[in-house]
Write a sequence for this structure.
């Protein structure tokens, strides 16, 4: 399972990194490339039609199509973690991947950070509850008579506060 | 005061109970649908380069005009405005961010 995750992660990384590097190169050399093309185009267009008034804009479509790397990685890691721990079924992991990508893939990270924050707080709260229950069960066994009195006292104090 | 172990109670009451949770897709979606809707609306309205805005524009829906009823929405720019600002975009940005918190 670890190997499958590792290979999937590598494939994802490379599938994203290669177009990103290409996009960076295209973006860096865009101005020089445009000036070269605009110098050439009047000559070529003059034979067929007059040169266009608008400047030539070259937007590599690959940058627009490819989704960002960070949301994909985070959504993949969170859903894979849930699937591995059996807290998610395969359909749950798939849905969590989609939800995670949409939450992280926006212009602001506030939604994704909120998602992770609630997820982690919820997990820790569940563990904390289990620890409290275990401790109370041990206390109940060790001092059975005192436990009931303390329980009543704390419930009254909580009601008063 | 008796402490009831919710895990044991859930195992007794729930059909097809699994130890780790084993939540299905519908359960995941039910837990996150309000935050997801708020995030999608926010990004579709104020971030035209986001995947949400592309999906929504592909569906032919103008979120800012049809749903939020803002004629000229200010596009999100972290240097210019904060998502929690109440004066921007008629307060819709702040409302949607708080809606994502539940």
């Amino acid at each position: 399972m670890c190997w499958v995750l590792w290979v999937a992660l590598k494939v994802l990384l490379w599938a994203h990194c290669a177009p990103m590097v290409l996009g960076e190169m295209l973006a860096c050399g865009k101005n020089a490339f445009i000036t070269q093309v605009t110098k050439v185009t009047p000559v070529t267009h003059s034979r067929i039609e007059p040169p266009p008034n608008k400047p030539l804009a070259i937007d590599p479509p690959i940058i627009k199509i490819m989704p960002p790397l960070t949301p994909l990685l985070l959504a993949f890691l969170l859903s894979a973690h849930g699937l591995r721990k059996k807290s998610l079924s395969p359909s749950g992991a798939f849905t969590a991947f989609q939800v995670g990508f949409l939450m992280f893939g926006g212009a602001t990270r506030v939604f994704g950070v909120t998602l992770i924050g609630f997820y982690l707080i919820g997990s820790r709260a569940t563990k904390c509850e289990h620890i409290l229950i275990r401790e109370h069960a041990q206390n109940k066994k060790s001092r059975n008579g005192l436990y009931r009195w303390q329980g009543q006292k704390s419930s009254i104090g909580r009601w008063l506060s | 005061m008796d402490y009831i172990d919710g895990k044991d109670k859930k195992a007794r009451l729930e059909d097809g109970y699994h130890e780790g949770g084993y939540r299905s897709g519908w359960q995941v979606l039910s837990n996150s649908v309000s935050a997801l809707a708020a995030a999608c609306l926010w990004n579709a309205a104020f971030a035209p380069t986001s995947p949400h805005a592309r999906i929504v524009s592909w569906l032919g829906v103008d979120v800012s005009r049809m749903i939020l009823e803002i004629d000229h929405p200010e596009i999100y720019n972290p240097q210019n405005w904060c998502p929690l600002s109440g004066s921007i975009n008629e307060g819709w940005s702040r409302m949607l961010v708080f809606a994502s918190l539940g």
